[in-house]
Each structure stands twice: as C-alpha cells, then as structure tokens.
C-alpha cells in the first residue's frame, strides 16, 4: 500500500515539509531539463525548488523531440538564455553582468545523466554556459556524488540567482533544503546516517 502524501508538498505525510516552505518571487526564469530517472527520486531537490519558486518549469525528457516545444519557446523569447553547466568554455557566473530578466537552463540528474542530456541535445550548446565558483561543498549530504564540485539543482539555482542579483535573499531555498536533509537524516537508522554525515 502506498504511503499517503501531503496534498500540498506531495512528500509523504511523515516527511511533510510545508512548514519549511516560504514562497519566493524572482524575475529570472528557471527551466529545468530533468532526466526521467529523477522524477520519482525521493531525494530529488527539483520538487523542493518548485515549491519555493512556483514558476519553475520542469520538463522531463532525454532527446531533442522531448524538448521541441521548449526550443520553440526559447527561439521566440527576447530574454538572454544561459545554460548552467561547467565546461572549458563556461564563464564564472559571479563575474558576469546580467539583464534584469534572463532565462536559466538547468540540467537535473547525476553528472553522468546531465552529460548525457547535453550530448543528446547539442542545440543547448548555442547558449552561453555558466559555472559557479564553489567556495565550499554541497549541503545536499543525503545524496552521494562522484565529484567534489557537485551541487543539487536547487543549490545551483540558488547560487545562480544570487550571482544575478547579489542583494537577493535565497534563504527560503537554503532553509527548505536544510529541512529536507535534516528530515531525511533523522529518519535513517544511526548506522546508515553515519555514512552520510561523515
């Protein structure tokens, strides 16, 4: 029998995060290209991102056909579009100057899945890419990553928003993530929790 979910945050009732959700309004347009394997992942941060910033668009797919409507939308948009993905050609987001309204494309998946999304969708490479200069590691300790510069999609979005507007408070995002991480850690047996806290 399936566990009952909260009708608002859609997390299991025992893991309800509604008390930790504070809505944010941003002028930046956030569009997430999500690998299908992430949709049902219990630790996926995009669901949380969408709860805090309700205008976030999440498009699930793998190949160009899955994102055909998005491509048409971006082609018709007058806003600058940026791909958030570190590469040899990407620029440091903290050193860029941005318009008041921009579109950020974020790839949601493991490093391997995000790279696969990029390889299957070479049209993404027409947009300038941005990376973040990380001063510390991810706070998303409940998911192990293969690279030290890994961030959850929510963290990447929060840091990008801060780079675009340094005066913006992204506390609603970081607080929601901390609440989810703490809730997950507290629900683990002590022997399992040690593996994530080390």
TrEMBL record:
<keyword id="KW-0819">tRNA processing</keyword>
<keyword id="KW-0808">Transferase</keyword>
<protein>
    <recommendedName>
        <fullName>tRNA-uridine aminocarboxypropyltransferase</fullName>
        <ecNumber>2.5.1.25</ecNumber>
    </recommendedName>
</protein>
<dbReference type="GO" id="GO:0008033">
    <property type="term" value="P:tRNA processing"/>
</dbReference>
<dbReference type="InterPro" id="IPR039262">
    <property type="entry name" value="DTWD2/TAPT"/>
</dbReference>
<dbReference type="InterPro" id="IPR005636">
    <property type="entry name" value="DTW"/>
</dbReference>
<feature type="domain" description="DTW">
    <location>
        <begin position="2"/>
        <end position="189"/>
    </location>
</feature>
<dbReference type="GO" id="GO:0016432">
    <property type="term" value="F:tRNA-uridine aminocarboxypropyltransferase activity"/>
</dbReference>
<keyword id="KW-0949">S-adenosyl-L-methionine</keyword>
<comment type="similarity">
    <text>Belongs to the TDD superfamily. DTWD2 family.</text>
</comment>
<dbReference type="Pfam" id="PF03942">
    <property type="entry name" value="DTW"/>
</dbReference>
